[in-house]
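Q: For a teaching session next week I want to show students how multiple molecules come together into a single three-dimensional assembly. I've collected the sequence lines for a complex. Could you give me the predicted structure tokens for the whole thing so I can convert them for display?
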Amino acid sequence: MPFVSLTDADVEAMLGELGLGSLDALFAHVPEDLRRHAFALPPGRTQLEVERELEALATRNDRAAGAVCFLGGGAYDHHVPAALREILRRGELYTAYTPYQPEIAQGMLQALFEYQTMLARLAGLDVANASLYDGATACLEALGLAVRHTNRTRVVVDANLNPRWRDVIKTGAAGMGLTVVEVPGGGLAQGRDPAAPAAAVDTSTAALLVPNPDFFGRYADLKALAQAAHAHGALLIGAAAPISMAIFEPPGAMGCDVACGEGQELGLGLSFGGPYLGFLAARKELVRRMPGRLVGMTVDSRGQRAFTLTLQTREQHIRREKATSNICSNQSLCAFAAGLYLAIMGREGLRRCAAACLAGVAALRAKLAAIPGVTLFPGTHWREFVFRTPLRAEHVCELLAAKGILAGVPLAARFGAGIWEAGDVLVAVTEKRTAEEIDAYAAALREAVTAAR
Amino acid sequence: MELVFEKHSAASGAANVPDPGPEAEALVPPELRRAAPPALPELSELDVVRHYLALSRRQVGVDSVFYPLGSCTMKYNPKLCEEAARLPGFARLHPHAPDELCQGMLALLWNLEQRLCEICGMDAFTLAPMAGAQGEWTGLLLVRAYHRARNDARTEVLVPDSAHGTNPASAAMAGFEVRAVASNDDGEVDLAALRNAVGPKTAALMLTNPNTLGLFETRIKEIAAVLHQAGALLYYDGATLNAICGVARPGDMGFDIVHVNVHKTFATPHGGGGPGAGPVGVKARIAPFLPAPRIVREGERFARAEASPQSIGRVGAFGGNAGILIRAYAYLAMLGREGVTRVAQHAVLAARYLAARLAPDFPSAYDRPCMHEFVATPSAAILGKGVKTLDIAKRLIDCGFHPPTVYFPMIVHEALMVEPTETETKERLDAFVAAMHVIAAEALATPEKLKAAPENAPVGRVDEVKAARELVLTYDMAR
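A: Of course. Below is the structure for the complete assembly, covering every listed component.
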């Protein structure tokens, strides 16, 4: 029997010690009619058999997993350094529980402290927590933080935030007592209008949540927005992309009080949508209102530097229904990996990665601009942009998929109605995309669009 | 040990990615350009690897030591499951890839849902929630949506006073008022108190079974009847599913909604505090409210469907922690039907055996047969020496064990909550008993030895009070 360690003799001896005649007798106090004797599950299989089944299942995804990936929309095909994958295999780390006993959890605690430091530095803010579930829930939790800080319940959200993240905010809003006001942040043709949400902020507003870059890859200066929010006593929350912060002005420097978002790009791989990493950084003054685990530096009984979970009085296991969040298990190992990624890449590696995305986007845009029938839209695009063709977007994606290229996210097919049209494709270019791949993309698109004319 | 910021070597991170040249950055308009680069570490790959390996040596997991952490189910995490999640066909799969190209992934997830339905006695499952607490929150939003659809605005959620803190916190986050229900002298829900608390405002009762004391709620069917007669729902917190998987099903007990922690019962690793996954199962009448995406089967084809108009919406950006769910599927595939039952049998046997062997020094808080875990307290003689549960926990570290959960549940004074799981040998269980016996003797003879513990850990006892009083949350706050 797999993964049990007691031998038949052990079982007999232990039952004997307890004065019991059988394993069934252990459940004698469970009412007989609740005990079920036949489960409709397949019989157990050997590791070899299961390994073969899983390899076969994985292979059935190879046309997608092995394709040249220009997909984005909340998850990105960035390079994962080999050293990161190697270290994540350490059993001491990944088989540990939440570090409630700090004396034997200094490894995870120190790594999370280092992650908090690196994330805060990257975001240009004072503190960061030790992870939330993903970018979407990080936005929801950031809004909750603002509500607690301001004692107000109205929040203004730039509608150019990732639509899935907006969905999660809507899911949580009623229960958390939030009134969510969505305001347009600028159409595709007109370009981004970062000032637009400012008009919706009033003295009952807890926070203004603005993506940077927005869902369509466009970067904007948020400084005027910060002034508008602060003039009304509201917080400015920037939903941001960590790698971009290596070269773009980070949320803190633009006047954001809180930065949140998705940390998947920091070495986590794609993994069909999870596990990813919700990050949350903030000004020091907000720390007692923050959700999630926080690691602090302290000393041990011998005066040596040591680390421990801290400010736990914010959390559910102490404060119960009055906690800043219900979060318990979070994405610690993902935060660990993100810190490791930043340590491996370093200042120069991250700068190059961010700049390569920018260059890749510029190169692909230049190629697509030369194709008759393809429309591009204005803006400062970092890693992602939208283009339009006269064809249905999902048809374009199917044609390119047949050539081994995942061309992008067909916006209307995937997200329903929005500021986009039926021909709009959201395309992402990471540092992994080569000049040859970009050429092949443009050639395939030219062929598809030309054939249809 | 040094922090990563205190080490310096010839940085090699730049060699990981191509250099796009200086003209790339010129594409950033001046007003959007970062003024000074972020102060990230600058180290060679070798020094990064040595740093993190040194960190891993200052950490213990289930792979290192016996880890009988109550309510956490720290069982062995099989290595094939790790390998499976890293197969390129899964690990490199983008969540926006078209359904036609990820049939293997969708088939796996669909099959996992079916198996969880069978184990829990539910009609439908969602795999979207990313942790147990998020499963609770999802479940409570389902409770809310179910009542609203019946034009029944119920505002209260009941939780036992022994409940895990996430239960009341999740209920509050879902917009409910929380009301505690007392436990009786047997450690079970007090039925009279429950009847008093249940009324037209009651939306649901959240319950684990076995409860957080490790005791089976023998009157579970009466509890369910009390809730259902009042029009309320019964919610199952799957934290303790390891005790009954393959033996009894929450659905048969009258539970309407369940969440399971795959990082407990289904052997996915805890990752030092996640990622886990918290799938939620429901009876058919609640299925229309499940979050998107739903995984549907049409003949031999699988697809992700948007949710019904009655759905609570989305609870995460994508469909959940797929990388973790792959591991759970692989585990269940190896166990099969006999293996699942064997898990519960051996988990309960190990706990019952430890409870009996420890009883002379550490009597159980309730003199009743436990399930897969139990709550003990130090004997009156030990407590009389001024020794606390915390001191015992720290001394256990010196003996090479991870301590049990301490000070939970809150209704037991000086609680030590022990959950051995099914994956340890009898020799190791006996060694744990022996260590606890030595510690009990030390507590009586040399209590100062316990107060000074741990001696053999990477650091001595950590000053948690100072950490909270003098907040240092980043390296920059320390300087």
